[in-house]
C-alpha cells in the first residue's frame, strides 16, 4: 500500500522535514510518484526509518549510516566490517566517557577548592584557585 509523506511521518512518529531530509541525503530511497507528483512511499520505508532510528540511538551519525547503507547495497561491506565498525564506535564512546569523567572530576575539584577558598581566604583564594592572573 503506498503512503504519502505525511502519512509516513505520522505512522513512523517522525517529523515530516526529517523524512524529506533523509530522502535528500540518500538515507532512504526516493519514492515513486503519483501522476499528480505526490511521493508514494512503500512499506519498505518503515524498515529503513526504523534502521536509521536504531543506528542513531546506538550513536552512529547520519553520514556513517548513509555510508554503511550504500556499501551494503553494493555488496561492499560484510558482517565482519559491520562488527569492526561497531567495535570502533564502542571504543570511541569509551574514550568519550573517560573524558567526561575527567572533566567531572576537575569540576568537583574546582568546586571543593572554591568552597574551601571562600571559607578561608576570600576573593584572592578564589582567584588563585581559578589560576586567574590579575
UniProtKB/TrEMBL annotation:
Residues 90-120 form a coiled coil. Pfam families: MerR_1. SUPFAM superfamilies: Putative DNA-binding domain. Keywords: Coiled coil, DNA-binding, Transcription, Transcription regulation. Residues 7-71 form the HTH merR-type domain. PANTHER family: HEAVY METAL-DEPENDENT TRANSCRIPTIONAL REGULATOR HI_0293-RELATED, REDOX-CYCLING DRUG-SENSING TRANSCRIPTIONAL ACTIVATOR SOXR. This is MerR family transcriptional regulator.
Amino acid at each position: 500500500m503506498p503512503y504519502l509523506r505525511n502519512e509516513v511521518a505520522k505512522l513512523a512518529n517522525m517529523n515530516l522535514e526529517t523524512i524529506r531530509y533523509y530522502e535528500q541525503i540518500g538515507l532512504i530511497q526516493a519514492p515513486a510518484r503519483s501522476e499528480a507528483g505526490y511521493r508514494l512511499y512503500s512499506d519498505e520505508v518503515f524498515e529503513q526509518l526504523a534502521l536509521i532510528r536504531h543506528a542513531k540511538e546506538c550513536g552512529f551519525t547520519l553520514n556513517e549510516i548513509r555510508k554503511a547503507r550504500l556499501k551494503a547495497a553494493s555488496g561492499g561491506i560484510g558482517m565482519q566490517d559491520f562488527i569492526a565498525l561497531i567495535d570502533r564506535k564502542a571504543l570511541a564512546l569509551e574514550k568519550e566517557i573517560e573524558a567526561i569523567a575527567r572533566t567531572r572530576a576537575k569540576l568537583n575539584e574546582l568546586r571543593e577548592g572554591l568552597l574551601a577558598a571562600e571559607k578561608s581566604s576570600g576573593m584572592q583564594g578564589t582567584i588563585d584557585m581559578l589560576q586567574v592572573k590579575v
